[in-house]
């Protein structure tokens, strides 16, 4: 699945942030490399202070930060690529919901260049970033999570349930062909599931590491998604799966092929 040391390390960290623990045997099988290679990767991550070795695998260091600031420091260039490509799909005058994740946050710089947008957000950080004349920002209220700088809970969902007709731009902590789009916490999963159900169209923004494993809480099935924007071409298996669902795929240097709307190099 992943070949370079850097790619494997990113995939291992993604799995650790989702599940808290990884096993050498499972990672070796998933990535198509030897157990010795995975052990070397884990030792390198341990030397970097990111993980702790345990019998048969590794866990995240107890001091690791799960905040927005911490997440925003991972896969930075990949998220910027996704943000730029996704913004190209937004026309002037559009109504858009943008989730509070770090990948969707990369949309902000590009959305500020457009005119007449109405942007629904549950992120205080994103609302401040979008503070520009000509943009109409609708901020959902709710229970504030300072570590994520967003609002969730019944008040947020009640506000969102009054809105329709927008394009939903959402991220995910992990993807599964069987289980769908997933989040690492139940509040985010519930809110973004509602955002998708109320939207006229949903576009998924994820970097390549999210294709490696699902998180615990389901957001929606893939049937609710019209397009995925990512930073690398997904594997052949994923491209076949997405094609069977009629989901278009945007990534750098992609060109349209076939009648299913799926794109490839």
Topology readout:
Blueprint: H1 5-19, E1 21-23, H2 24-31, H3 35-47, E2 51-54, E3 57-60, H4 68-72, H5 76-87, E4 95-98, H6 102-105, H7 108-111, E5 118-121, H8 124-129, E6 136-139, E7 143-145, E8 150-152, H9 154-160, E9 167-170, E10 174-176, E11 180-183, H10 186-198, E12 201-205, E13 217-220, E14 227-229, H11 236-244, E15 248-250, E16 255-256, E17 263-264
Walk me through what this model shows.
This protein starts with a helix and ends with a strand. A 7-stranded parallel β-sheet has the order 6-5-4-9-12-14-15. Strands 1-3-2 form a 3-stranded antiparallel β-sheet. The protein has 265 residues and is an alpha/beta fold. It has helices at 5-19, 24-31, 35-47, 68-72, 76-87, 102-105, 108-111, 124-129, 154-160, 186-198, 236-244; strands at 21-23, 51-54, 57-60, 95-98, 118-121, 136-139, 143-145, 150-152, 167-170, 174-176, 180-183, 201-205, 217-220, 227-229, 248-250, 255-256, 263-264. It folds into 2 domains: 5-60, Winged helix-like DNA-binding domain superfamily/Winged helix DNA-binding domain (Arc Repressor Mutant, subunit A), CATH 1.10.10.10; 70-254, Rossmann fold, CATH 3.40.50.1360. The protein is built from 11 helices and 17 strands. Strand 14, helix 11 (236-244) and strand 15 (248-250) form a beta-alpha-beta unit.
